[in-house]
Amino acid sequence: MKLVGSKTSPYVRKIRVMLAEKKLPCEFIEDNAWHAETTVPRYNPLNKVPALVLEDGESVYDSGVITEYLDSLGPTHWLPADAEARAKARRDEALGDGIADAGVTIFLERKREAARQDPAWLARQRDKVEAGIAAWSKTVAARGPGAPLSLGDIACACALLWLEFRLPEFKWRDDPVLARWIQALESRPSFASTKPSP
């Protein structure tokens, strides 16, 4: 398998963490979909990362599709067979992806010249990020300490760590529940080895 993506993308990091946790061999092809010379459209016609190239040369995308596929490989599984439990696991992954979506929207909107930025749109995205952080904190608190690693943990951690990297005004580590939770995750080799460079 080959994974195509940027090391700074929270969606790509989610897949890289999952690959590391499951100890699945995969070649990483670093590419930035925003560069003029990008090769990403070869693997995903929507020019988005991540894209996973399978052994037969076919690609699968986006990150939610890739996590579903990777979950089927190896002995470790985070997507339960039970329909309700599976829906909740996918919901938690969607929460992490949604936090990332809103954060990326803020990041890109701020790249526009100031006069063209939409304050109401930015405020709406900030509200989404803050609501997502609060919802995840409640989920972590309800599970209690020592809960096994979940797909939601991976997705939400990658989203929140991306916020810290790109939008540090979101002080989510001030929440003691999230501070304890992330400390445990950051000690895992899968997270340490996929941390983007400043």
Which characteristics define this entry?
Glutaredoxin, 198 residues, Glutathione S-transferase Yfyf (Class Pi), Chain A, domain 2, alpha+beta, 2 domains, 4 strands
What would you say this structure looks like, in words?
The radius of gyration is 17 Å and the shape is globular. It has two domains: 2-71, Glutaredoxin; 83-192, Glutathione S-transferase Yfyf (Class Pi), Chain A, domain 2 (Up-down Bundle), CATH 1.20.1050.10. A four-stranded mixed β-sheet has the order 2-1-3-4. With 198 residues, the chain is of the alpha+beta class. 55% of the residues lie in helices and 7% in strands.
Secondary structure elements and their pairing?
Layout: E1 2-5, H1 10-22, E2 27-30, H2 40-43, E3 51-53, E4 59-60, H3 63-71, H4 83-109, H5 119-143, H6 151-166, H7 176-186, H8 189-192
Parallel strand pairs: 1-2
Antiparallel strand pairs: 1-3, 3-4
Terminal CA distance:
28 Å
Helix content: 55-70%
Sheet with the most strands, sense and barrel status: 4 strands, mixed
Instruction: State the CATH class of the largest domain.
Output: Mainly Alpha
Tell me the CATH architecture of the largest domain.
Up-down Bundle
Approximately what portion of the residues adopt beta-strand conformation? Answer: 5-15%
Helix and strand sequence: EHEHEEHHHHHH
Structural class from helices and strands? Answer: alpha+beta
Q: How many helices does DSSP assign?
A: 8
Strand order in the sheet with the most strands: 2-1-3-4
Name the overall outline: globular
Instruction: Give the averaged pLDDT, no decimals.
Output: 97
* Whole-number tally of structural domains: 2
Counting DSSP E segments of at least 2 residues, the number of strands comes to: 4
Low-confidence stretches: none
